[in-house]
């Protein structure tokens, strides 16, 4: 299967002449959206969901930022940085919504910079060290596919704010998934070394798939995406043995705390600073 065929298959239902989401959609996605929590929606649960989704995006964006100056080519460095910026935009909107409905009045900076690792609710796959480029694109493929499937469902959420954030994110995540899929196929179907590294990356990611399936019931969608890409890349799908613990419960690897220290260092050193 060619890279273009994978693109057309995964992009089906998202026809748009714009190949990338970067640089598009600068209008406020929440303009005119009623911010009142709808009747029947539990504000506490809504806030918790928003924080978890925002934590996934923030931590993923920080890992992607590590590829700046390290990516194989300048074009890929720019692409990964812009994917990270898309995720940061999602995190900001979700943190803001959480602060509106959880009764604390916290802003996005309070969530991002002034919580400790044990307070974060991101899935552990997002926080693992960057590894090589094969691992970066395999992880991006898995997380983008998983997040996209969930956002497609959230676009019909009864909370209009979360629904609007999800609807905007669907377009971005479609391209994130496609970028990663094309690279996984290129590496898997490339040299012996790139094939070996991509296969190893799939095996590294496999133990964390169970946590993703537990967090949201989108197993079938993610499995179908991985199957398509693996077949096109000539890669076997790994058999995963789920690890114990869950980032959703605040149970993280030893890698999250140093990542957050780097992310939060300036804000904590100068908490009253303004632009």
UniProtKB/TrEMBL annotation:
**Which is a Pfam family this sequence falls into?**
PaaA_PaaC
Q: Entry's InterPro entries?
A: Aromatic_CoA_ox/epox, Ferritin-like, Ferritin-like_SF, PaaA_PaaC, PaaC
Instruction: Spell out the NCBIfam families in the cross-references.
Output: PA_CoA_Oxy3
This chain belongs to the protein called Phenylacetate-CoA oxygenase subunit PaaC
Q: Which organism is it from?
A: Streptomyces thinghirensis
